[in-house]
Amino acid sequence: MAAGAFTLGAAPASGEAIPLTQVVPAPASVTAGGSPYRITDATRIRVDDSREARRVGEYLAGILRPSTGYPLTVTSHGRGGIRLRLAQGPFGAEGYRLDSGRSGVTITAARPAGLFHGVQTLRQLLPAAVEKDSVQPGPWLVAGGTITDTPRYGWRGAMLDVSRHFFTVDQVKRYIDQLALYKINKLHLHLSDDQGWRIAIDSWPRLAAYGGSTQVGGGPGGHYTKADYQEIVRYAASRYLEVVPEIDMPGHTNAALASYAELNCDGVAPPLYTGTDVGFSSLCVGKEITYDFVDDVIRELAALTPGEYLHIGGDEAHSTSHEDYVKFMDRVQPIVAEYGKTVVGWHQLTGATPAKGALAQYWGLDGTSDEEKAQAVKAAQNGTGLILSPADRIYLDMKYTADTPLGLDWAGLVEVKRSYDWDPGNYLPGAPSSAIRGVEAPLWTETITKSADIEYMAFPRLAGVAELGWSPASTHDWEDYKVRLAAQGPRWDALGIGYYQSPQIPWPAR
């Protein structure tokens, strides 16, 4: 930590600026020094004369106005204040530079996403009370110095399973805002499973109407209309997250099989399923109607999804023979390409032949068999990109301890240190570093029924996953990280995020 950094468990004293080194994820480069900038009622947010910069400026103003009580006019004129500028530089698509001194704060980026990420850093340099929705006393100081920051990996994701339990558009938006705090840039939505089909498909209307009518435990379920889904996509884009939709197949398909008898090899529709077992369902690989179905679903979903990727699942297909699995993936992957998307699949896809450019999402454990790991590594050596989601590290539905009231423990207990203390760069020995595209934290929802459950299981672990994806390996240090993480606690309190107060973290006194 820099000189003058706060002590364990203590926030900076009132009137002191938060050190530039206290940010999560850790910035690539920090040079502290010089006078702080003080936000006052005369501060303006100055933006370039571009729609994108103005939009980020209005977003920042929307965060700062309620707590400061200041007007914080967004303008393209004047001097000083908080400036957001787009300019060429060594920032890449998401990087930024933040310069702070007595006369103002300037965030510079080559792309709007960089400005937005710089704004998230600025939030953390202000007192936690800045996140409240009522006027707070301040003062609002930003420490002097420069942060120069670019992400380590381009894929920094979180997955939300809306199939085991359904979550409304507003609940998903709330999670998107929380993800954006830590520069997450992918929202993977698990839209179909045995327990529910959650997206309207016009050509197969019973998928949502019937297949979406239940959930784990037999609740009412629900589904997104196309307009609902497009609103989630739009909102995510406004926070610079790309939505990656998943239709899991050929397994995890009972909701579809129950909706349409002809998708079953015997032509008999099974009942809807509300349990939590896996591996018992399969689309009928030998029927041509299966591929008509897949084509229709992918075509309609791709048309709603501006992002590059479409996830086809492929895990736990225990009721599909290996031969049929390979045959199925050989038929389905070209359909994804036909509609302009890049295939993502769970790492079992590497047991078939991944399409050129495909990404495999690895969810194995430290103790996964060498054979299964070798399969993923070989695919990576042959050009398949890897997204790392080791279940015993960053599955957010794993219990923290045996006493955690929510979650599962099939992959083990995952306390905060365990979820943070590993390096994606060397997790799979033999996989080329160029193949590691990033990390993603899945949250399966067998036991998760409301936003408070999402937050309790995601926080504080999500912040660590974000740091693994964003920050240089050289910054990776548990002893330093746990202090920076502790300082996030009051911010989460101010935002109304109910988090797990891990005893491994020196949280400030509440």
What's the SSE blueprint?
Elements: E1 29-32, E2 37-39, E3 45-47, H1 51-68, E4 74-75, E5 81-86, E6 96-101, E7 104-109, H2 112-124, E8 140-142, E9 145-149, E10 155-161, H3 169-180, E11 186-190, E12 192-193, E13 196-197, H4 206-209, H5 226-238, E14 242-246, H6 254-259, H7 288-304, E15 309-311, H8 322-338, E16 342-346, E17 359-362, H9 370-381, E18 385-388, H10 391-394, H11 416-420, E19 436-443, H12 451-458, H13 461-470, H14 478-486, H15 489-495
Parallel strand pairs: 3-4, 3-5, 5-7, 10-11, 10-19, 11-14, 15-16, 16-17, 17-18, 18-19
Antiparallel strand pairs: 1-9, 2-8, 6-7, 6-9, 12-13
Please sum up the structure shown.
By secondary structure, this protein is an alpha/beta fold. The chain has helices at residues 51-68, 112-124, 169-180, 206-209, 226-238, 254-259, 288-304, 322-338, 370-381, 391-394, 416-420, 451-458, 461-470, 478-486, 489-495; strands spanning 29-32, 37-39, 45-47, 74-75, 81-86, 96-101, 104-109, 140-142, 145-149, 155-161, 186-190, 192-193, 196-197, 242-246, 309-311, 342-346, 359-362, 385-388, 436-443. The strands form four sheets. The chain has an eight-stranded parallel sheet. Strands 1-9-6-7-5-3-4 form a seven-stranded mixed sheet. Strands 2-8 form a two-stranded antiparallel sheet.
